[in-house]
Amino acid sequence: SRNLLLPDGVPPERQWARFYVKIYRAEGLPRMNTSIMANVKKALIGENKDLVDPYVQVAFAGQKGKTSIQKSSYEPLWNEQIIFTEMFPPLCKRIKIQIRDSDKVNDVAIGTHFIDLRKISNEGDKGT
Question: Domain C2 spans what residues (predicted)?
Fold first, then answer.
């Protein structure tokens, strides 16, 4: 890793660090029963569910973690944290957060958001 080409501003000596992503809750989730998937579900497994079974998947620096599944909830409450171990400062500059509907047939993404680490961290020695 000594020969790794680092971008400008990234020190050659980097320390391992833990990145904590805390997932609190979600609100205003859309009704999913109007989708084509709902019709497929009804045809395949005789289930026509109006409710979602949401969970959150977080991806960062090639790693993925996810919360528990909250059954039949449009206002899920998690209060869970996902921990990533990565070099600091990380070369990956964003965290992908996706809320998904857990399903027997196929998990469906409800919404995706990216957090730019450069917008939420400090300049200088303590941040990037």
Answer: 1-128
Say what the pLDDT of residue 98 is.
97
- Element housing 53 (H / E): none
Distance, in Å, from the CA atom of 15 to the CA atom of 110, rounded to the nearest integer, reads: 36
Alpha carbon of residue 114 to chain centroid: 9
DSSP 8: T
pTM score over 0.85:
no
Q: d(Cα 101, Cα 71) in Å, to the nearest integer?
A: 10
| Amino acid identity, position 70 | Q
- Tens digit of pLDDT for each residue in 108-126? 899 999 999 988 877 665 5
Burial 40-68 (b: 16+ CB within 10 A, else e): ebeeeeeeeeeebbbbbbbbbeeeebbbe
Beta bridge partners of 108: 101
Residues 6+ apart with CB under 8 A from 91: 6, 7, 10, 61
Architecture of domain 16-119: Sandwich (2.60)
